[in-house]
Amino acid sequence: MRLSRYFLPVLKETPAEAQIVSHRLMLRAGMIRQASAGIYSWLPLGYRVLRRIERIVHEEQQRAGHIPVLMPTLQSADLWRQSGRYDAYGPEMLRLKDRHDREMLYGPTNEEMITEIVAGYVTSYKALPLTLYHIQWKFRDEVRPRFGVMRGREFLMKDGYNFDLTKEDALHAYNRHLVSYLRTYERMGLQAIPMRADSGPIGGDYTHEFLVLAETGESEVFYDSAITDLTFGDRAIDYDDHAQCQAVLEEFTSRYARTDETHDAAVFAEVPEARRRSARGIEVGQIFYFGTAYSESIGAYVQNEAGDRVPLHMGSHGIGVSRLAGALIEANHDDNGIIWPEAVAPFHVGIVNLRQGDAGTDAACEEIYAALRAAGLDPLYDDRDERAGGKFATMDLIGLPWRVTVGPRGLKNGVVEVTSRRTGESEEMSPEAAIARIAEIYAPHIGSPPLA
Ligand code: P5A
Predict the structure, then answer these.
(1) Which of 48, 217, 359, 407 could form a disulfide with 354 if both were Cys (CB 3.0 to 4.6 A apart)?
(2) Is ligand 1 within 6 A of the CB of residue 203?
(3) Contact of 175 with 245, CB cutoff 8 Å
(4) Paired strand residues for 213
(5) 320 CA to middle of ligand 1, Å?
(6) Residue 263 zone, left/alpha/beta (φ > 0; ψ -120 to 50; rest)
């Protein structure tokens, strides 16, 4: 993309309404624009990040064997009356009527709808196990929408639902989700710690939230610091292997880690004092096992091997896709702006032309731009007729992990400069070497497997 033809409305001033750094930077970097309280338009740069996040979520869900679908945002109130949640959900649910006076709602979650779909088709245990998921907008009329996309009213969620014959199988689905979530967040360069939590309006009593530690987080958390040493890494996992998934769950949940709703001071006191931490965190996901509550109320039953009609065991599992854009910035920024991890960077590399209009410099930039694109990368070429200082400030603000700076003086010696946004370190090298270096850095991040 050429910046001269792009739509990147960066702001010079720090917006007064934004209280936390991710919200400020998303507005300043031209990623989002508020439409009304807690409702945002995603401008081109923000939309790119959102899609990178979505892509990772899709890949990891499908790696775990989960199948994508897409359900609507608007739902019928009748379905929610069947589960008893229409009244129970309270004022957080946005209720509306169509022209025939039929009661509808903008879905805050989809347990009822997906259960109704499965109930309509699945009649035998032979169709199980089954996990369906989608990435779709939700609406929750939060009392206090704030912090930009972190606590929105309209927000993008990945929500998945498992359908199993037995409790044991459903608990395996729970474990499988836990493992896939660990991989998902780590791929984005985030450490998200599973913590015992409260199930709220989703129900059930078996649930974990995934929290990214951050001072600006809305949740108060208590944990054994030993848990922060755990990483999932690139270990091979067989998602059908019950014992393997259970072992990962045990490894990641055996240390004390709880949100304030489930915090137990007496149990916490058993953690060695030097490792006891209380902090704040951003909830970027939550998994639930709730048994047969929805399948019984909506009517999702199958015949088991013995020919008995039994209700399905279910759980639901959510990732805050739009919230993650904010959480990633909370975890990756400095005074000059955002520092995207390579995996979610809106563009892989910025090209800064220090002397726009100089034939040699323009030609070198064009060549680098074309070569990077030919290598499957997405460069952002700042080809505007602007001062170098302004171009650097924009690149720093929008946080592309790598910058290639091209100027007449360097070109005279056959070199350009490659700069890391994270370390600020620069290295001079030939344009060919710069292209090879950037391509090598991104090799693990491009060329995705086919999706289901
Ligand atoms: C699990 C999937 C559920 O709704 N039903 C379907 C279950 N869980 S949840 O914890 O309530 O939400 C899942 C994740 O969505 C994000 N989230 C939000 N993001 C931005 N703004 C909001 N107002 C908001 N509410 C929830 C969180 O990341 C949460 O973990």
Answers:
(1) 407
(2) no
(3) yes
(4) 281
(5) 6
(6) beta
